[in-house]
Amino acid sequence: MAGSPDRLLRSVVLLDRPRLVTVLVVSLISTAAGLLLPGALATATDAVLGGHDVAAAVLWLLALGAAEVAADAVNVLLPAQLTGNASAWLRRKVTDRLLALGVGSPFAPGDAVSRVTGDCAMAGGVAAVLVRLISTGVLSSGAVVLLATLDWRLALVFLASLPLAMLLARSHLRGTAKDVLSYQRVSGELGAGLLDAVAGLRTIAASGTADAEADRVLRPLPRLHLAGLGMWRTQARMVWRAGLLLPTAEVAVLTAAGFGVLAGRLTVGDVLAALGYVSLGLGLVGQIPLLTSLSRTRSSARRITEVLDTEPPSRGNLALPEGTGALELRGATVRGALTEVDLTIPGGSFAALVGSSGSGKSTVVALLAGLRRPDAGQALLDGCDLAELRPEELRAATGYATAEPMLLGATVAEAVAYGSPAGAPAVTAACRTTRIHDVLVRLPHGYHTPIAETPLSGGESARVGLARALVREPRVLLLDDATASLDTVTERAVTADLGDRTRVIVTHRAAMAARADLVVWLEAGRVRAVGPHEQLWQLPGYRAVFTEEA
What we know:
Blueprint: H1 5-13, H2 17-50, H3 55-101, H4 109-124, H5 126-150, H6 152-159, H7 162-199, H8 201-207, H9 210-217, H10 221-262, H11 268-281, H12 283-286, H13 288-308, E1 327-334, E2 338-345, E3 350-355, H14 361-368, E4 376-381, E5 384-385, H15 391-397, E6 398-402, H16 412-417, H17 424-433, H18 437-440, H19 458-470, E7 476-480, H20 488-496, E8 502-506, H21 510-515, E9 518-523, E10 526-531, H22 533-536, H23 540-549
Parallel strand pairs: 3-8, 3-9, 6-7, 7-8
Antiparallel strand pairs: 1-2, 1-4, 4-5, 9-10
Helix pairs in contact: 1-13, 2-3, 2-5, 2-11, 3-4, 4-7, 4-13, 5-6, 5-11, 5-13, 6-10, 7-9, 7-10, 7-13, 10-11, 17-19
Pfam families: ABC_membrane (PF00664), ABC_tran (PF00005)
Domain ABC transmembrane type-1: 21-289
Keywords: ATP-binding, Membrane, Nucleotide-binding, Transmembrane, Transmembrane helix
């Protein structure tokens, strides 16, 4: 959904038209009651002072008050529903786009979370903000008209204060727009850093770098402070100026009304009504915080639009032909990770990827799995470019597991079958293969134990993730260090039962590389050598890879 922030906000406003119309009608009822109240109060006051029958006047006053209270009560609930529905709609659109962008998304995880949560909630409230601004504008305009019906001189005195009120509002909007956008962007940076730090909490604690990491994550705080300070300074200036404007206008109108009373044009009740109209007329100034909210809403919409305007990779539409699971990279380049990598892994073979940290092993696996596309070159499965294959066929043909899998699903069985139509027999078979079945059947409810209540160690979680990759019976199995947390005996037993499918495993263990049909040695984003472990072991640089890892 490409477009400007204002176009997005327009779509949000019109998302639930029946409820929006209801909110507008109820707001107009509240506004009408508010405008009639000062006149009703004036009539009741004059009736009391004149010794007339006050019953009708008091009943009318009470009816107006009750109508305003009832309308305000409804206006608490309906706008909240509008905001909730719109926020949910926006979150769905942004989440869908982020998922479509996949691992190649330009938005850091923490920043993406900030856009899905805070920005969608803020932009989702645009209808409620606009309705309040419209009702306040109608209230202020109506108050000026009613003030003029009392005495046109009072209206002129009041109107003299409006240019200053408009100048204040315009100055406030211009002063906050830049600070609001800066504040939200820096908040996204902070969210991204915090999410990274939480994900790497064990590493940070083990390396004793907590203080350095805290300094890194909190580095944007001074910019956040400056943006927040700018917002609050602008707000403070507006508050005290608006606070002076209302009593000044009231004193001026009250003075003019006093002369009206002396001249016999106005009654005491009319004076009370005039003060009420002045307060209502300057109600827009009292709603200046709404202008800040509107500015934040537009900034949030701009950040949401940045996500929605980012085009995801095109979906392929070719069917995957029969094959043995042969994998190939042709001149594959990923900026900052790989440079013109050429690699062929025959179907049904067992390939081990080795290399020092940062050599590009995980990136190669991601390319072979179709989780990301090369910036240049091709990744192929059985001669077909992965970018041209139908996503559902690619996902069915490739199994992928990592060292620290995210287990999704309500129960253990659902976590293993996640993303596939596998039934209970297939789930059990996959768990037996990965040597996790005996652990799972001892859980309180076996495979039906809620995943949130399942105490799994790192190695056990890795085996559940590996079972999830196996349960769909993939043509190709890609393991990005998925066996690293297993002991060598379990690792050997598990990898021996993975079948004759194509297996590509990132490993740091020489024993695993020795069992592979071929070893791909990566160094600085390039393929240094490909061959049997015994042959590569003669090279000092190859032996050093395992020495460094150890």
